[in-house]
Design brief:
CATH topology of the largest domain: Fructose-1,6-Bisphosphatase, Chain A, domain 1
Number of helices: 9
Number of domains: 2
Structural class: alpha+beta
Strand content: 15-25%
CATH class of the largest domain: Alpha Beta
Largest sheet: 8 strands, mixed
CATH superfamily of the largest domain: Fructose-1,6-Bisphosphatase, subunit A, domain 1
Distance between the termini: 62 Å
């Protein structure tokens, strides 16, 4: 009886594959090839999740001893996640170019003369990997572009498109449950992995983020390096003003995906500004800021450099860094006002 009840319970949910097939006919760019690309990404996510669940048992914690292109010490799981996504995308045949945080250059996919891949995938295979050993949620972020019609061969120039040209974006959170959230420009939907059947099930349909939230996420250890407008905004959020919901709470994991996912569902603002140490910001435009900006906007939120829309920035290089203010719409607009000197502490 228990197994029958379980099957009925599962049957009440739509699988990711069913959802993609249903959506395929409603989007101009959503061809069978695009649907297969999303399937390949979900397969890689399942494999990374499998590695994550076994990490403490098979001793894949820790560092490789290598320094990646970002100048950061590479974690063992960073490399495993990178390999799984590259392998899945190469095998699937729908992708013609991969850009990864763990690789210094774009990776062209040459699968012989029959390769007709027309999609470019940029990704951070494992965001927040330094938190794995203490069991904090980490994630994958991905961004999808179409190979421009005038280009027959995928080169780095083909990947350097502004965020407004994205045709898909998403992330996976590996936490107490594994959740995949994505958009193709028709709203945002979230799917939770059911390990008993190995399928992502639609659990968060039509996600809409609140216009204002009760929390903000920033590394306040860098406070002395923040520009004056941001310092004022943080002090404003900390003021005792119960009539308008202040003070706000601080919630900061140090794992971008985890902080963004919580704020997306509950309302909030994530901030990673320019500092004295990181004058251009720390997060990467192409495979961190742009994809999550696409999701934020599709859910009713916003994403800004502090002075303008993230997705309108013209990229200059694959690993370009940028300041980021992302989350609930009113909170992002407040940040822009403070940074522009239009507002001060009440």
């Amino acid at each position: 009886m228990q197994s029958e009840h379980k099957l009925e319970e599962i049957g009440a949910f739509k699988t990711l594959e069913q959802f993609i097939i249903e959506q395929q006919g409603t989007l101009d760019h959503s061809t069978g090839a695009f649907s297969r690309l999303l399937r390949d990404i979900s397969v890689a996510a399942k494999l990374v999740n499998w590695h994550m669940r076994r990490a403490g048992i098979v001793d894949v914690f820790g560092k490789t001893g290598e320094i990646n292109v970002q100048g950061e010490v590479q974690q063992v799981m960073d490399l495993l996640a990178h390999k799984e996504f590259v392998r899945a995308l190469k095998r699937g045949g729908e992708c013609c170019l991969i850009g990864s945080e763990e690789h210094s250059e774009a990776i062209p996919i040459r699968a012989g003369k029959d390769n007709k891949g027309k999609y470019i995938v940029l990704l951070d295979p494992l965001d927040g990997s330094s938190n794995i050993e203490v069991n904090v949620s980490v994630g994958t972020i991905f961004s999808i572009y179409h190979l421009p019609d005038h280009m027959e061969e995928a080169t780095l120039d083909a990947a350097l498109q502004p965020g407004v040209e994205q045709i898909g974006a998403g992330y996976v959170v590996y936490g107490s449950s594994t959740v995949l959230v994505y958009t193709t420009g028709q709203g945002v939907n979230g799917f939770t992995l059911d390990p008993s059947i190995g399928e992502f099930l639609l659990t968060h349909p039509d996600i809409t983020t609140p216009r204002y939230g009760g929390m903000y996420s920033v590394n306040e250890g860098n406070y002395q390096s923040f520009e004056l407008g941001l310092k004022k905004y943080i002090k404003w959020m900390q003021q005792e003003r119960p009539e308008d919901g202040r003070p706000l709470s601080t919630r900061y994991f140090g794992s971008f995906v985890a902080d963004f996912h919580r704020n997306l569902l509950m309302g909030g603002l994530y901030i990673y500004p320019a500092t004295h140490k990181n004058k251009s910001g720390k997060l990467r435009l192409m495979y961190e800021a742009n994809p999550l900006a696409f999701i934020a906007e599709q859910a009713g939120g916003a994403a800004s450099t502090g002075t303008g829309r993230i997705m309108e920035v013209i990229p200059e290089k694959l690993h370009q860094r940028i300041p980021l203010y992302i989350g609930s719409l009113d909170m992002v607009r407040n940040a822009e006002s403070f940074l522009a000197g239009e507002r001060g502490i009440d």
